[in-house]
Specification:
CATH topology of the largest domain: Rossmann fold
Helix content: 40-55%
Largest sheet: 7 strands, parallel
Strand order of the largest sheet: 3-2-1-7-8-9-10
Strand content: 5-15%
Shape: elongated
Order of helices and strands: HHHHHEHEHHHHHEEEEHEHHEHEHEH
CATH superfamily of the largest domain: CofD-like domains
Number of domains: 2
Number of helices: 17
Structural class: alpha/beta
CATH architecture of the largest domain: 3-Layer(aba) Sandwich
Number of strands: 10
Distance between the termini: 46 Å
Length: 444
């Protein structure tokens, strides 16, 4: 019996503690509770006036007066009656609000979290910093997966120069912008990366026209046909996946990435057209550009840049994911004009066929800023944990002496312990929020 009483007390204390959390600042609940309480109070006043009127007009009806007397507990002192009716009223209001909320929100709350936890987390992220991330590929998806824990005000700006794989085939067949990198970012920003996200990332195999296509790419392509626009398809896909933020293409123009490359055993440079072909050519990339080179940025991207608290470039493929965004002139101009903290996240390891010779963080920053023509970043974030084992054809991108001479450089352990050539999403996001707090003060 004593154990049962102890368990009951613990449950009551836990429920009382959870109820007090509903009154915490920032949840947006108290205002509606007080409004509801005010409405019920006015209703009670109206009912009281009605009863007084019955007392006065039907004073000869002893039966009615007797019923009203007992119903209003007039045989008790007035203070006791106030406490009884007030306590019952408050209890009924609280119980009604509590159970109504649970009934309405039950389909939308995960079973391993309480309703107040979900609401508190949503409100906290809703007030989070405005962060714009720029890149493409798996690096950008990793970054978004970490940042969505801190804020819903995320904008992922994604390159549309991809012309390989499923995206390239759909681009050629249907004339739409490549959906692959956008699909990865939408999946990373999903609030629930379970079955629906797995379906979005599912890739068909076997013989036939579907071989190699991902379901998400086909889904976005179908939505582009239905909505009549690629940007509309992205927006609708975001609603389906319930994303924390938004994903935007850097430009709506059909751009192609072109590179001049210095090949081994030759004094002449080779011109390579197409993002997917650049890593396959043996040699060193001299420079890259877009054709047409006057493609304008997608207007919502410009607005996001100018309103941002932080702009993050990287991680991602240097020549084929990051630079195709920065080479959109309007977009670059918006970065330069923005008052946001501008951070470059250097890759952890070299990428075969693309950055084999760029073995320091300094090399990566130099290539980026030579292409854009100026010193662009406020902070350069580098990894300094080289303890894991990389693939045979990769090397660490190290913070060497030249790197450390740059006052903008900040070194942290950013490695994913299971895949040392990749960033750990939690470590990376926490470091970026730390940088933002240092520059602007806490925003979350």
């Amino acid at each position: 019996m004593s154990n049962y009483k102890k368990g009951s007390r613990k449950r009551f204390a836990r429920e009382l503690k959870e109820f007090r959390r509903w009154l915490a600042p920032g949840l947006g609940v108290k205002r509606w509770m007080f409004l509801l309480l005010g409405g019920i109070t006015l209703l009670g006043v109206g009912l009281g006036i009605l009863l007084l009127d019955l007392y006065r007009t039907d004073s000869t009806n002893t039966t009615l007066l007797t019923i009203l007397s007992y119903a209003s507990l007039r045989f008790l002192p007035r203070v006791v009656r106030v406490m009884i009716f007030g306590g019952l009223g408050i209890g009924m209001i609280v119980s009604g609000i509590w159970n109504l909320n649970r009934s309405l929100m039950l389909p939308f709350v995960r079973h391993d979290r309480s309703l107040v936890d979900e609401l508190a987390n949503y409100r906290r992220r809703e007030r989070g910093p405005r962060i714009v991330t720029i890149g493409g590929g798996h690096g950008l998806a990793t970054l978004l997966r970490g940042l969505k824990i801190y804020t819903r005000n995320l904008t992922a700006v994604v390159t549309v120069a991809d012309d390989g794989g499923s995206s390239g085939r759909l681009r050629e067949s249907y004339g739409i912008l490549p959906p692959g990198d956008i699909r990865n970012c939408l999946a990373a920003l999903s609030n629930d990366e379970r079955m629906l996200t797995q379906l979005f990332q599912y890739r068909f195999s076997g013989e036939g026209g579907l071989d190699g296509h991902s379901f998400g790419n086909l889904f976005i392509t179908a939505l582009a046909e239905i909505t009549g626009s690629f940007e509309g398809a992205i927006a609708e896909s975001g609603k389906v996946l319930s994303v924390s933020g938004r994903v935007l293409p850097s430009t709506l123009h059909d751009v192609k990435l072109v590179a001049d490359m210095q090949v081994p055993n030759s004094l002449n440079q080779v011109r390579v057209e197409g993002e997917s072909r650049i890593p396959k050519i043996a040699g060193r990339v001299s420079r890259v550009w877009l054709e047409p080179n006057d493609a304008s940025a997608y207007p919502p991207v410009i607005k996001a840049m100018l309103n941002a608290d932080m702009i993050v470039v990287g991680p991602g493929s240097l020549y084929t994911s990051l630079l195709p965004n920065l080479l959109v002139h309007d977009l670059l101009g918006a970065i330069q004009a923005s008052r946001a903290v501008k951070v470059y996240v250097s890759n952890i390891a070299t990428q075969t066929g693309e950055t084999d010779l760029l073995v320091s963080c300094h090399d990566h920053v130099r290539v980026l800023e030579e292409h854009v023509g100026e010193r662009l970043f406020d902070v350069v974030l580098c990894n300094n944990d080289y303890g894991g084992e990389l693939n045979l054809d990769s090397r660490w991108v190290r913070a060497d002496e030249k790197t450390m001479d740059d006052p903008r450089v900040l070194c942290r352990d950013l490695v994913d312990d299971r895949h040392p050539w990749r960033h750990d999403s939690s470590k990376l996001a926490a470091t970026l929020i730390e940088i933002l707090d240092e520059y602007t003060g806490p925003l979350i």
